[in-house]
């Protein structure tokens, strides 16, 4: 089989569809290279003295793991010098990170969750990096948080890496979804799946069921109906999977379908869910839509939401189209 590298894919995609200008290609290659470095650090585990907590908290009040901080630094350093970016933002940093003056400023803005699935780091379960790329608004001066607050439909690229039994990179630039596998001996990303598609129907769902007593009625109804199985209103049996790393759950769904949910619940009525809109829900929703699936917050299309702050949270329903539409319609009834 002829191997197509990430670079070759990006160059040919630009030639065919004019969708990946040189600066965006550089950006994607730099992010992919950083993911390679993170994958290497993750793979060392205890031998690299990278496990455990760092003794600090991020802006969301969550304990930071050593690898959270290391991954954040790897992505920042990799992306500062190339001249392709105006600013970055991350789950692990309260405010945005403008490109230092000593480097030229580019027209893109990069957001990331450097290491998603933090609770799985120390137990050797798949974790990953999620990223989202926006364009700087026309005429932007010194970048501010406000410049990042664009709806997900404005993303020009999005992707994630999974650090699991294999390290993979899943990418969209708005023209379908492709998967690259890291060849660990060669150190290169090789195209292994073209045009990933999520089937519209599924028998698999993912939700943290330990929160069920706090759910709002539409979510309870939807999950109860699935749990009722063959003799219930859905007249079929469903299976449940929950990895607690969004990257790994979404990767399963892109490969064989399913629905992933992280709803808002009644514990803290003011909190719109757990996951973050700008660097978790939006990039994943872009990928899912590009693969023929759907993504909402229960009420509206995820990618249409106008963000109001960098770290805002959002309820998430994404995956197989017919299931996402069903649970969204329950919220409207
Ligand atoms: P993180 O960004 O701090 O790792 O949190 C996000 C993760 C998601 O990957 C995952 O879907 C969810 O949190 C798991 O939540 P729970 O702890 O309720 O299982
Ligand atoms: Mg995360």
From TrEMBL:
Keywords: Carbohydrate metabolism, Cytoplasm, Hydrolase, Magnesium, Metal-binding. Its cofactor is Mg(2+). It catalyses: beta-D-fructose 1,6-bisphosphate + H2O = beta-D-fructose 6-phosphate + phosphate. One of its GO terms (cellular component) is cytosol. Substrate binds at residues 116-119, 208, 274. Pathway: Carbohydrate biosynthesis. Residues 198-331 form the Fructose-1-6-bisphosphatase class 1 C-terminal domain. HAMAP family: FBPase_class1. Belongs to the FBPase class 1 family. Homotetramer. This is Fructose-1,6-bisphosphatase class 1.
